[in-house]
């Protein structure tokens, strides 16, 4: 039996915009209200995914959310036709309106936490959509995300889907952005690492002071229980509160793992030595490569600006590991010098590939944000909705779909345009037919 790590990249939606909604995300705030290019954003993400497929990686796509979210606006008291709802909300409650127009579902690292069958008690792949309660605009996503995941991973013999955790800050869950998995082989039982920012029920424990800690320990523990993970296969680590206050809003902005490698900044965690000893003990006889980046080599600010750690580490078919990095890493002297040195060291990482994903970077997400990792064996891969897997033909279809439906420029002031809503729904309805997802969007179910 063969085993793979499959990356499912989120397709950037047709209303990709820069509303600056995410307090604690430096890039998101610094580009607020700038003009966006939805067509370019979607193509950048799709081209990155296709490049990985061309490297021999298994690659899929996930559909975006519908935005503007008219259903939520109606729940909040705006009435009339869809056009009237948009106009009233934009005029009467502009910040609420912008939140309901968020483009953030493109970052599918926040879509869910995934545990492969090798780790779970029932031998199935488990999915729990993230509730994303810390940000209102993201808390609107879990139900549709759950439907998209179920339409992508349909077969009950292989896949187990959970409802997202309770919508409360005590169980704030940000998905795979605060979760990584180490293993000797993708098909072998691994160590699932849950990184949390704070304790919800014990306020005496350290927590950040400036920016919110979005993930709680209690949420991590709940997901481990839901997924049937054994205590011997789980490690909980607290993110350094001081580094959260420097703009590291998710763990995947300060560390990333793959197989037997954990690539991290020296300021990433609390109690690092103790946690790493537990990881190594649970990992087994094979050594884990803990690759530490010192502050004097790459300051935290540079790591956040370039998303050095919001990169993908992939294992290529020849067994070598490669880093998939944004071009911002190449353009920063300190980060570029570090990566040039990294590939010469005695670690499994031997290559760096740079990609232009600037439309995503300006909104606060790098290459790793754009993908959800799902470890599958060949039988499970065969059970995945084949229309969501990327090959040459599907790439061409999706490229043509973007060309047909996406605008080259979008201003925040365009979001209440009723024509944009019509364009977006037309595009998404066609996408569900391309991917054969069924009726996953509220407007399709009315």
What does this protein structure show overall?
- It is a single chain.
- This protein is an alpha/beta fold.
- The chain has one domain (3-67, 102-441): Succinylarginine dihydrolase (L-arginine/glycine Amidinotransferase, Chain A), CATH 3.75.10.20.
- The chain has 18 helices and 15 strands.
- The chain has helices at residues 26-30, 38-54, 70-75, 82-92, 94-99, 136-139, 142-152, 217-226, 241-244, 272-283, 300-306, 327-331, 333-342, 358-361, 378-383, 392-405, 418-435, 442-445; strands at 3-10, 59-62, 112-115, 125-129, 159-161, 179-182, 191-196, 234-238, 255-258, 261-265, 289-293, 312-315, 321-326, 349-355, 371-377.
- The strands form 5 sheets. It has a 3-stranded mixed sheet, sandwiched between helices.
- A hairpin with a 5-residue loop joins β12 (312-315) and β13 (321-326).
- α2 packs antiparallel against α16 and α16 (392-405) packs antiparallel against α17 (418-435).
- The radius of gyration is 21 Å and the shape is globular.
- The protein starts with a strand and ends with a helix.
- 53% of the residues are buried.
- The mean pLDDT is 95.
Poorly predicted runs: none
Under CATH at level 1, the class stands as: Alpha Beta
Instruction: Estimate percent helicity.
Output: 25-40%
Strand content: 15-25%
CATH architectural category: 5-stranded Propeller
Indicate how many domains the architecture comprises: 1
Task: Return the average pLDDT rounded to an integer.
Answer: 95
CATH fold-level label:
L-arginine/glycine Amidinotransferase, Chain A
Shape: globular
Say which CATH homologous superfamily is assigned.
Answer: Succinylarginine dihydrolase
Report strand order across the widest sheet. Answer: 2-1-15
C-alpha Rg, in Å? Answer: 21 Å
By helix and strand content, what is the structural category? alpha/beta
Question: Roughly how many Å apart are the termini?
Answer: 43 Å
Count of strand segments? 15
Quick one: biggest sheet?
3 strands, mixed
If helices are DSSP runs of H or I spanning 4 or more residues, what is the number of helices?
Answer: 18
